[in-house]
Design a protein that fits this description.
- Belongs to the SWI5/SAE3 family.
- It comes from Anser brachyrhynchus.
- Component of the SWI5-SFR1 complex, a complex required for double-strand break repair via homologous recombination.
- Keywords: Coiled coil, DNA damage, DNA repair.
- This protein has two domains: about 1-40; about 40-89, no CATH class.
- The chain is flat and about 45 Å long.
- The chain has helices spanning about 10-35, 40-70, 75-80.
- By secondary structure, it is mainly alpha-helical.
Length: about 90
C-alpha cells in the first residue's frame, strides 16, 4: 500500500487485485502446460532460479555500462559495439 498514489480508490485496488488474479491464473495454466509436456516441477524451479540469476547479472552489467558511459560522456548505446554487445542483449 505504501507504493500506491495518495488518491488510489477502492475500485482501482479491486481492479488491480483482479488483474493479479488473472495473471496468477495464466501462470498456473502455463505451469500446467509445461508439466503436461513432461517438465518436472524441480526443472521449472531450477530454470526460474537461473533466469533470476541471469537477470541480476544483466542488471549489474547494465549498471556498470551506465556508469562507464557517464564517465566517458557517451550513451550506453555507444558502448555496445566496443564490447561486442547487441542492442537486444
Amino acid at each position: 500500500a505504501s507504493c500506491r498514489p495518495p488518491g488510489a480508490t477502492g475500485e482501482a485496488l479491486r481492479r488491480e487485485i483482479e488483474e493479479l488474479r488473472q495473471k496468477e491464473l495464466a501462470l498456473d495454466q502455463e505451469i500446467a502446460q509445461l508439466l503436461s509436456e513432461g517438465y518436472s516441477l524441480e526443472e521449472l524451479e531450477k530454470h526460474i532460479a537461473l533466469l533470476h540469476e541471469y537477470n541480476d547479472i544483466k542488471d549489474a552489467g547494465q549498471m556498470l555500462l551506465g556508469k562507464l558511459a557517464v564517465i566517458r560522456g557517451v550513451t550506453t548505446k555507444q558502448l555496445y559495439p566496443e564490447y561486442d554487445l547487441e542492442l537486444s542483449d
